[in-house]
From TrEMBL:
This is Hydroxymethylglutaryl-CoA lyase yngG. Keywords: Lyase, Metal-binding. It comes from Anoxybacillus ayderensis. Belongs to the HMG-CoA lyase family. It holds the Pfam family HMGL-like. GO terms for biological process: ketone body biosynthetic process; L-leucine catabolic process. Its EC number is 4.1.3.4.
Length: 296
């Protein structure tokens, strides 16, 4: 069995950080990440800089990183304007995003769910014309900070629409980290009746420390693609309660210990985590870094 780890730290990890990380530092960090064996890095997002000030330097970062062969470099885009930026920076892949929750969708991208589809259709069509692959995120799959539980019918409906619009892969977001392993398996049971496991990724936040348990539950269902953020950085500013993502270093540790190949080396990953930790100016939350620091 082989698992693909998709590093979202430079985007999801940094987007919630209040202190601006210098453009040069973001670039240097991504360059380090490119040498860890990771095959996928989401480097930034081309959203409105007023909404996410930390990533206002998206074009500079995306266009100046050193590309390593075999690594897919992706960026999040909300609309056509965002896509233009991502194409200008020659991203390999773009990721569109929306929420299974009406309220979170509005708070995050200022549109209803129905209003979002034509915007994403335009992005997906144009990205395809430019020979790019497209990833589609669905947020709040396992619970919403505004609406609470989200019905499985809603998750299925949004996912189906995104596949109909042409996404190549679906990433299911536990935006605020409320999922538990049984819920993950029940949700996947329904989705796997409709979409193949190879086209689905899980994107866990670790608010309640359940992300690794949720990964294990997903692995048992045949899922082999997981999003994570180095050191456990992360969160969505438009989803109160969203804390760090599943930490890439903890994920890689678990997979390696379980004998599951992922191709990522823990040592350079640890160095890259300690490097960005210094720039951020506070200890990152992953279990692995705590062990490395000698706190455990
Ligand atoms: P809006 O205000 O409705 O946009 O924002 P608009 O289309 O009405 O345009 C208003 C102005 O914004 C115009 O400028 C546009 O040109 C400009 P003006 O004519 O007034 O001078 N504009 C842009 N500027 C730069 N880049 C753009 C862009 N688009 C329009 N792409 C918008 C709508 C989607 C832009 C806004 O709501 C936004 O940027 N939202 C981003 C929120 C965000 O990034 N959230 C975090 C990422 S999602 C997440 O973290 C979840 C995930 O990790 C999965 C999970 O955990 O569940 C993916
Ligand atoms: Mg996220």
């Amino acid at each position: 069995m082989r698992v693909t780890v998709k590093e979202v730290g430079p985007r999801d990890g940094l987007q919630n950080e209040p202190t601006f990380i210098q453009t040069e530092d973001k670039i240097a960090w991504i360059n380090q990440l490119s040498k860890t064996g990771l095959t996928y890095i989401e480097v930034t997002s081309f959203v409105h800089p007023k909404w996410i000030p930390q990533l206002a330097d998206a074009y500079e970062v995306a266009s100046r990183i050193e590309r390593v062969e075999g690594v897919t470099y992706a960026a999040l885009v909300p609309n056509k304007k965002g896509l233009e930026g991502a194409l200008a920076a020659n991203m390999d892949e773009v990721a569109v995003f929306m929420s299974a929750s009406e309220t979170h969708n509005r708070k995050n991208i200022n549109k209803s769910i129905e209003e979002t589809y034509p915007v994403l259709k335009e992005v997906i069509d144009e990205a395809k014309r430019a020979n790019k692959t497209v990833r589609g995120y669905v947020s709040t799959v396992f619970g919403c900070p505004y609406e609470g539980k989200i019905s499985i019918e809603r998750v299925i409906s949004v996912s189906e629409r995104l596949f109909e619009l042409g996404i190549d892969e679906l990433s299911l977001g536990d935006t605020i980290g409320v999922a538990n392993p049984v819920q993950v398996q029940q949700t996947l049971e329904q989705l796997l009746k409709r979409f193949s496991a190879e086209k689905m990724a899980l994107h866990f936040h670790n608010t309640r420390g359940m992300a690794l348990a949720n990964v294990f539950a997903s692995l048992q269902m045949g899922i082999t693609i997981f999003d994570s953020s180095l050191g456990g950085l992360g969160g969505c500013p438009y989803a109160p309660g969203a804390s760090g993502n599943l930490a890439t270093d903890d994920l890689v540790y678990m997979l390696t210990q379980m004998g599951i190949e992922c191709g990522v080396q823990l040592e350079p990953l640890t160095e890259a985590a300690r490097w960005i930790e210094e720039k951020i100016g506070r200890p990152l939350m992953s279990h692995h870094l705590n062990v490395v620091r000698g706190n455990r």
